[in-house]
Structure formats: structure tokens, C-alpha cells
Design goal:
Elements: H1 17-41, H2 63-145, H3 166-177, E1 182-183, E2 192-193, H4 195-204, H5 214-217, E3 222-224, E4 234-237, E5 245-251, E6 254-260, E7 264-269, E8 277-280
Parallel strand pairs: 1-2
Antiparallel strand pairs: 3-8, 4-5, 4-8, 5-6, 6-7
Helix pairs in contact: 3-4
């Protein structure tokens, strides 16, 4: 046995490669730090570093509530926009309806104006025809006054006929009892009459049935000259079969008729409104 057999070896153990790498890295880091510190201290013109503190926003982690609120708000906005759109549509409909009503009202007003103008023109035409007929009537009356006094159809020297008798008297008496009553278009009595309504009612007193309208009444009986009138004859204005007014000859150069709403039922001289012609029904 050797005398060195129990003496431990003084040889240092071999370091592993990993430990050497760690130590080398640490040493390198320390040296780098010292170098940077030295550089900083060696620069007298460098300003001292200012420490800045940044505030981090506080995050609201209740994302579910935020999303729900946003959805509700969006739904409310949508409903509000829909309501505004509906109101706008209603306003537009109202404006359109008002415009249509105004257009119809204008058309109705124009139609009424046209009808009134037509009625006015017709009334003027009839008035012109009446004035022309009055001239003819005056000529015929003048001729009647110059006729023979002995004729049974002429007036006597006083210009007054003998009182009517029989059916003519019944007709004339009824018509004369209506004098002063109102003229109403379409009236047939007892409180008001129009022209043909009065003639029809008067002849009914003699049990004679006449048509209702003046045109038809002027077609009844036989035509007679205005110079050959007898009490009870029906006078007409216009043309026979197309008369627009009728009355009853009451004798003495007078007639009884429902003239218009202004005069009512009156007894007037033929010269007041000379008729166009006459028919004899009795």
C-alpha cells in the first residue's frame, strides 16, 4: 500500500458548463449596469430624470350590464324613430286628404256657380221674351177695345164684363179668395200655391181635373184670342204646350194668378203683365 493512499486529493472539482454560463451572464449584467451608471455620472449636462406616474383607467368589469343597457337604449331609439316616421306619415296623409277635400270643394263651388249663371241666363232670356210678348199683348188689347160692342165676347161701354156665372163663377170666386196668400214653388194649397197649383185647385171647384204643370195646362181646351176672352179662360205665358206661367182670366180686363214669391197671389190688370195666349176649357 502506498503511503499516499489515504490522503484526499487537493484537485478542485470541475464546474459544469451550465453553471459557468449563468455566472458569466450575471457578471455581464453587473458590468453593463456599472458602465451605464458611470456614463450617467460622467455627463454633467444631463437633466435629472423626472418620474412620471400614469393613471390606469378603472375597468368596469360588469360588461353584461353595459351590453344590456346599450341594447335597451338602441331599442328605445328605434321605437322613437318609428314613432316619428309614423307621425310624419300621418301628417302627410292629412295634408293629402285636405288637399283632396279642397279640390272637391272648389269643383262643387264651380259647379254651383255654373248652375247659377245658367239659371240667370235663362231668367234673362225669359224676361226678354216676356217684354216682347207684352208688346204684342198691348197691341192685341188695343184691337180688342176697338171691336164691336155687340159682340158677346167684348166688354161693354164701361169696360166691365157681366159677372161670371155657373162653373166660371165657382172657379173665379175660389181664385179670388186666395188673393194675398203666399207663392211657394210646388205649392198646391191651402195656405200657399204656385201658378199651376192655383189654376188646378180653382178648376177642381167646377169638378174639372187639370194636369199639374203649366205646360200641360196650356195644352188643354181650345185656343182663344186675347181679344175674345171670357171669365174662366186660362191665360198662359210662353208658348202653348211649353208655357212657363199660367193664370185665370177673371173678367174686366183682369187676371188672378200666383205670380212670384215677391207678390204672392194677386188680381191684376192684363196690362201689368200681358199674357202670350189663352185656352178655353169650360
Amino acid at each position: 500500500m502506498s503511503h499516499t493512499a489515504h490522503i484526499p486529493s487537493h484537485r478542485k472539482p470541475r464546474r459544469s458548463a451550465s453553471k459557468l454560463a449563468v455566472r458569466a451572464g450575471v457578471a455581464g449584467g453587473v458590468l453593463s449596469t456599472l458602465a451605464m451608471a458611470g456614463t450617467a455620472s460622467a455627463s454633467p449636462a444631463a437633466e435629472p430624470a423626472t418620474e412620471t406616474t400614469l393613471e390606469m383607467p378603472v375597468l368596469n368589469m360588469d360588461l353584461g350590464s353595459q351590453v344590456s343597457s346599450a341594447v335597451i337604449k338602441a331599442a328605445d331609439n328605434t321605437r322613437a324613430q318609428a314613432l316619428v316616421g309614423e307621425l310624419n306619415a300621418q301628417e302627410e296623409t292629412a295634408r293629402t286628404g285636405a288637399a283632396a277635400e279642397a279640390k272637391l270643394a272648389k269643383a262643387d263651388a264651380q259647379a254651383k256657380a255654373d248652375a247659377e249663371k245658367k239659371a240667370t241666363d235663362e231668367a234673362k232670356r225669359q224676361a226678354d221674351a216676356d217684354r216682347a210678348n207684352r208688346g204684342d199683348g198691348r197691341t192685341q188689347l188695343a184691337s180688342a177695345k176697338g171691336s164691336s160692342a155687340g159682340s158677346s165676347a167684348s166688354d161693354d161701354d164701361s169696360g166691365v164684363r157681366a159677372p161670371a156665372t155657373g162653373s166660371a163663377a165657382a172657379i173665379i170666386n175660389f181664385a179670388r179668395n186666395q188673393v194675398g196668400k203666399a207663392y211657394v214653388l210646388g205649392g198646391t194649397g191651402p195656405s200657399s200655391f204656385d201658378c199651376s197649383g192655383l189654376v188646378q185647385a180653382a178648376f177642381r171647384q167646377a169638378n174639372i181635373s187639370l194636369p199639374r204643370m203649366s205646360q200641360d195646362q196650356s195644352s188643354e181646351g181650345t185656343s182663344v184670342s186675347l181679344s175674345n176672352l171670357q171669365p174662366g179662360d186660362v191665360l198662359y205665358w210662353g208658348s202653348r204646350g211649353n208655357a212657363y206661367h199660367v193664370a185665370i182670366y177673371s173678367g174686366g180686363g183682369k187676371f188672378i194668378g200666383a205670380q212670384n214669391s215677391g207678390t204672392g197671389i194677386v188680381e191684376r190688370s192684363l196690362s201689368y203683365d200681358p199674357p202670350t195666349g189663352a185656352v178655353r176649357i169650360l
